């Protein structure tokens, strides 16, 4: 069957794609920028990548008419727009208008559990999207999930940060809120299982694991699995704003995502019983089984996708093409070059930069810069990276975004997502003469940008010099 997959660079879609391909389906992947999609690992499968921006209706003509079904896997909760609910509704309406003109028989939508009388802004938006997607032309199947547990998922990484960093936690009262977590593996099984199954047409189902837990119980069970003793004290006086800052500074989440998560965590997310798992022959994993499975993937460096790679800024509205060409005019630059004796080893070092590997020199200064970025509302260094030795266009490396990663040409280009009075690029390139060029470019915004550059110039003098030298010498 010919299946349209939206949000193809997102956390869920990247996990679902190989499942659908292994089942023999032809997949049409929708992305805003083809540079962000790594298609090399799918060469043996029937896959096509098309550029579609659902906020630009004219691009929707790239979607073929002869599709059999479509997955709607887009959301804007962690994006850069203030009113994500309006954006989500507009995206859903544009999607629906186009799909109704195709031969698609079914649309599958992954939403959130919405059984509480009072919904968060995020869950209310998901419900409105579901209502928008309803159609008399195609059948809509909605799967409603709560907390999704898997390597790289936002909930898993936030719980991991909290448990592994804080022996004692003073927490808000919403830690007593009830939820019903589900393993990412089971989410994928449900998503693929309902595909063009007639009995699921024009129906919605809550999907969840077998246990109802409070967030406090989830943290303590996680700690037990990790062999850690943790004490959690809940207090009634912590406001939503303080709770958001608490999550933001302790974990790797952005402040906007922390705010929306706190808003959602005040609402019980418990599934209504249904017969879907029985009809599809699915036995959902327990919470502990899901955690152990996630760590197995992490230890084997097999994390396929991560929430951290989601775009959280409006800088990429036009894709990466405008950022790949690093500006020259009106910019400050720090250029350094050095001869490389072992090209392949140095390329491996470049491709491993950041995260647990660090930045090859003065990591404590990078840590201070990351802390200051957090203080001023930036992403900081806590995001790390999804894979320890692989990067692709669109990946995150600490507070940088990979704009171009071409190992064959020996070029890695990063764009800064830290809080800056301007824009910054960091480029590593090994030329045909085996000379490694390391170029930091900063395009200042007004006088504040120029003052910033001169203020950090003394640090650049030895940080970038040491980084280049150690990157070449390291046996990593």
Report the β-strand fraction as a percent range: 15-25%
What is the helix content? 25-40%
Spatial order of the strands in the main sheet? Answer: 3-2-1-4-5-6-11
Q: Report the radius of gyration as a whole number of Å.
A: 23 Å
Instruction: Look at the structure and give the mean pLDDT.
Output: 86
Shape: globular
Instruction: Characterize the largest beta sheet: strand count, sense, and whether it forms a barrel.
Output: 7 strands, parallel
Distance linking N and C termini:
45 Å
SS elements, strand count: 19
Structural class: alpha/beta
Give unreliable regions as ranges: none
Tally of helical runs: 14
Summary?
This protein is an alpha/beta fold. It is built from 14 helices and 19 strands. Helix 6 crosses helix 10.
Tell me what the structure shows.
The protein has 14 helices and 19 strands. It has 476 residues and is an alpha/beta fold. The strands form 5 sheets. The chain has a 7-stranded parallel sheet, with helices on both faces. A 6-stranded antiparallel sheet has the order 14-19-18-17-16-15. α2 (84-99) packs parallel to α3 (121-133) and α4 (154-165) packs across α6 (215-225). The model has no long low-confidence stretch (mean pLDDT 86).
